[in-house]
């Protein structure tokens, strides 16, 4: 059974676990516990301190994805297509083919619904597996992120977008910052998988930015749950190294040739 079919078989049975990775060592640890690893363009803010994901380039995504690929043996690997790399059918096809060829990822992710439908359809027609992304679309937001799906207009539009993406053939859709009842209702309406981020416990799976759950980013976003404060552990290890260096305890005999 293909990895896509195995994931799809989890719908209404067990949850899909998805996290982001930007490098091999992290991917290797995640892969023991995840179903999907996403090389998100969130790397722009997390690693490069950009104020928007719009500054992330295709080359940056490719380099990080090549590293991540080396750490994955079982999870499905999805790569975000960065801003301005899928504006037309031909631009999207050319760039997605390049990403797949150079990173050996299993699928790509693009942000948007009906507005990018023809582009998505063309990718799928050309055998490129696509993950959709609806709700808060970081590539389209200038300034503060606002949750979606509170007004009837938004409810109608997001439902229409989700159904259209499913019809176009995407294998899954990330629902980001969408009101919980709407997230549940979209998940119920779709046969494909929904992956929530600040959406609903009733989505088919959940995704978060790994650096956020590890406490590396000092994130204040409402939906982020920090599972450990890794900064503290880094601080105490580095402090100990400093003391060892200053007091000539490192390198001791054990570490020398
Ligand atoms: O860029 C990213 O990491 C994402 C996820 C948070 C869904 O798109």
Topology:
Elements: H1 3-8, E1 16-20, H2 24-30, E2 36-39, H3 43-46, H4 58-69, E3 76-80, H5 89-103, E4 107-109, H6 117-125, E5 130-135, H7 152-168, E6 172-176, H8 180-189, E7 193-197, E8 205-208, H9 210-213, H10 230-246
Parallel strand pairs: 1-2, 1-8, 2-3, 3-4, 4-5, 5-6, 6-7, 7-8
What is the SS-derived class?
A: alpha/beta
Under CATH, the homologous superfamily of the largest domain reads Phosphoenolpyruvate-binding domains
Q: Assembly state here?
A: single chain
Attached small molecules: 3-methyl-2-oxobutanoic acid
User: Which consecutive residue ranges, at least 5 long each, have pLDDT under 50?
Assistant: none
And the CATH topology of the largest domain? Answer: TIM Barrel
Radius of gyration: 20 Å
Helices and strands, in order, run as HEHEHHEHEHEHEHEEHH
> Roughly what fraction of the amino acids lie in strands?
5-15%
Q: N- to C-terminal separation?
A: 51 Å
Q: Which strands sit side by side, in order, in the main sheet? A: 1-2-3-4-5-6-7-8
**Count of helical segments?**
10
- The coarse overall form would be globular
Number of E-state strands: 8
